[in-house]
Specification:
- The complex is a heterodimer of chains A (361) and B (259).
- Chain A is of the alpha+beta class and 361 residues long.
- Chain A folds into two domains: 4-229, 3-Layer(aba) Sandwich (Rossmann fold); 236-360, OB fold (Dihydrolipoamide Acetyltransferase, E2P), CATH 2.40.50.100.
- Chain A is 23% helix and 36% strand.
- Chain A has helices at 42-50, 92-102, 107-120, 136-148, 166-183, 194-200, 218-223, 228-233; strands spanning 4-13, 16-26, 31-35, 57-62, 65-66, 77-80, 154-158, 186-191, 203-208, 211-216, 238-248, 251-256, 260-265, 275-280, 286-289, 298-309, 313-320, 325-331, 346-351, 357-360.
- Chain A is globular, with a radius of gyration of 25 Å.
- Chain A starts with a strand and ends with a strand.
- Chain B is mainly α and 259 residues long.
- Chain B has a single domain (55-258), classed as Orthogonal Bundle (MetI-like fold), CATH 1.10.3720.10.
- Chain B has eleven helices and no strands.
- Chain B has helices spanning 6-29, 46-53, 55-89, 94-103, 106-120, 127-151, 156-163, 168-196, 200-205, 213-221, 227-258.
- Chain B is globular.
- The chains are: A alpha+beta (361), B mainly alpha (259).
- At the A-B interface, strand 6 and helix 2 of A face helix 7, helix 8 and helix 11 of B.
């Protein structure tokens, strides 16, 4: 039996449906992520699981038991808030002890577990400090320790890394993975940052306008988006409008707008006449000097219009001669050289016949 | 800090002089060895001796303290509840209802309370009527202070308490109350100072039998401002000053721990 089962929940606010008939299950020990743009309903779902809000329809089951009549304080579910929500009048140690006190844990046992948990998040020496005396990253760890100390069945995390700067955020991501593995508590994580979701999760539910667009493992979400929204929202992606001309031997012949005929891998039951988009990742598009040799089935000449240099890689925006604009990514792996092409350079873009993923409308 | 231009310094000095010189004069003359507030003769504590032998004055002081203590305790309780309710449930009319007495002209409040006590409640004017009157005008101040404190706080703190297993009552006891305590204490001290120096409303609701310090001082200066009045004013001033300082200190030290 799944640890958490969400059955057809709907939540309306006045004339706006924040969550529409959403269903999913979370397995014990899983790191599950709800990913989507702001306003997609992910936080509303989290608040309903925590018990701060109730669905207008549908059920939330924990270990097969309906939670509808269980108030927030009786649910074995804890939350790490985006603002951390540490108690400002209590020390770090007292903050972490709070859920244990509420559960009536005896004093010696309580002390031992507070110390253990603080050690786990490397904060043992800060137990006597107050929240206003510690840094944002440390507050984050206190909030995690407080959420985990009583070993809840489920830990909900609402954009917990949103307030941290980039460097700290990457450190915390690694620590979250490690911590979750160590304590074995099931995590339900909410974020709008897709790299974070891809890096942390076992499975991701991509949400948009109150519905789940796709639910799958990170690599499948990235490589095989099930529709335009997912393809566009996850990572950078070239979306080529294209109609199916023919399907044969696991390959598609597509008529792409502003590009002409291209080859792409077939996935399910595409047939001639289908319309849709080819989702092609910039790292799947090779960029080379004009007329350079390649075995790729799809080859187009063009001119570099722009590039985005981010250190390890550069993304080139290339205007193809037949009118279409594509992004191509190339690692800056040549020694002593920052990048390969300049604006205005003539180049050739190419990609393999089995690159990309065709999404029917 | 940049040095202010001379004219601004002078203007500031003049303003402070206008505010505080009268008080300084009152304090000074309370130690003056003369019946008249005319010229400085010499230092004496006689007027304080006279004051502490004045039975009527002592009774008025006792009344004032009793009224201030009881009315501010009740107003703090009710005002805190009102502040919490306004914050939690966002009612449409409650804020207006609670805060109106704060803005109402005192004379109007005094007259209407008098009419209400006598004609509707058939209450004999006395300590009880004054206490009730003081509670009505203090509740609003407490509610405003408590609500302001709550408005400045992260709402998820209270959700976090529930989330981590605290019942609504435990959440109030362990989280909400400790966090609003500075505002509650500040509201209490505010009510206390308002009550102890209130004249207008007390004048209308005290009847003939009961006197308070402000009423007593007023009845004495109808004849002349004697040094005894200076002495009692000085003590009243001192008490108010202490309360104000304590209130502002409390707020600051609590805020530090609370923010």
């Amino acid at each position: 039996m799944a640890l958490l089962e969400i059955r057809n929940i709907t939540r309306r606010f006045a004339d706006f449906e924040a969550v529409s008939e959403v269903s999913f299950t979370v397995e014990s020990g899983e790191f599950f992520t709800l990913l989507g743009p702001s306003g997609c309903g992910k936080t509303t779902i989290l608040r309903m699981i925590a018990g701060f809000d109730l669905p207008d329809a549908g059920q939330i089951l924990l270990d097969g038991r309906d939670l509808a009549r269980t108030p927030a304080e009786k649910r074995p579910i804890h939350t790490v808030f985006q603002s951390y929500a540490l108690f400002p009048h209590l020390s770090v140690g007292q903050n972490v002890a709070f859920p244990l006190r509420m559960a009536g844990v005896a004093e010696t046992e309580l002390r031992r577990r507070v110390r253990e948990t603080l050690e786990q998040v490397h904060l043992a020496e800060l137990a006597e400090h107050y929240p206003h005396e510690i840094s944002g990253g440390q507050k984050q760890r206190v909030a995690l320790a407080r959420g985990l100390v009583n070993r809840p069945r489920l830990l909900l995390l609402d954009e917990p890394l949103g307030a941290l700067d980039l460097k700290l955020r990457e450190e915390m991501q690694l620590e979250l993975i490690k911590l979750q593995r160590e304590v074995g508590v099931t995590f339900v994580f909410v974020t709008h940052a897709q790299p974070e979701a891809l890096a942390l999760s076992h499975r991701i539910a991509v949400m948009n306008r109150g519905r789940i667009e796709q639910l799958d493992e990170p690599s499948r979400i990235y490589s095989f988006p099930s529709n335009r929204f997912v393809a566009d929202f996850i990572g950078n992606c070239n979306l080529l409008e294209a109609a199916v001309i023919e399907r044969r031997d696991g390959l598609l012949r597509l008529a792409a707008a502003g590009l002409g005929e291209i080859r792409a891998p077939a996935s399910d039951a595409e047939k001639a006449g289908d319309k849709g988009v080819l989702a092609l990742r910039p790292e799947q598009v090779r960029i080379g000097a004009a007329n350079s040799a390649s075995d790729d089935a799809n080859r187009f000449p063009g001119t570099v219009r722009d590039f985005l240099y981010v250190g390890d890689v550069t993304t080139y925006q290339v205007a193809l001669d037949n009118g279409c604009q594509l992004a191509a990514l190339r690692p800056n792996d040549a020694p002593g050289r920052a990048r390969f092409f300049e604006v205005g350079d003539r180049v050739t873009l190419s990609w393999a016949a089995d690159a990309g993923h065709y999404v029917r409308d | 800090m940049r040095k202010l231009p001379l004219w601004l310094q002078l203007a500031a000095a003049a303003t402070f002089a206008f505010l505080y010189l009268p008080l300084v004069v009152v304090v000074a003359y309370s130690f003056n060895d003369s019946r008249l507030n005319a010229e400085w003769v010499g230092f004496t504590l006689d007027w304080y001796r006279v004051l502490f032998a004045d039975e009527e004055m002592l009774l008025a002081a006792r009344n004032s303290l009793f009224i201030a203590l009881v009315s501010s305790l009740c107003a703090t309780l009710l005002g805190t509840l009102a502040g919490l309710a306004i914050h939690r449930y966002r009612p449409r009319w409650l804020p207006l209802l609670v805060i109106t007495p704060v803005a109402m002209p005192e004379i109007l409040l005094g007259v209407s309370l008098l009419v209400f006590f006598i004609q509707v409640l058939h209450l004999t004017l006395g300590l009880l009527s004054v206490v009730l009157a003081h509670i009505t005008f203090s509740i609003g101040f407490v509610a405003i202070i408590v609500r302001a404190r709550l408005a400045g706080m992260d709402e998820s703190i209270f959700e976090a308490a529930r989330d981590l297993g605290a019942s609504p009552w435990a959440t109030f006891r362990l989280v909400t109350f400790p966090l609003i305590l500075p505002a509650v204490v500040a509201g209490f001290l505010m009510s206390f100072t308002l009550s102890i120096d209130d004249f207008v409303i007390t004048f209308f609701t005290a009847g003939v039998g009961v006197s308070t310090l402000p009423l007593q001082i007023y009845s004495m200066i109808k004849i002349a401002v004697t040094p005894e009045v200076n002495a009692v004013s000085t003590l009243l001033m001192l008490l108010t000053l202490v309360l104000v300082i304590v209130a502002s200190r409390l707020d600051k030290s609590f805020m530090k721990g609370g923010a």
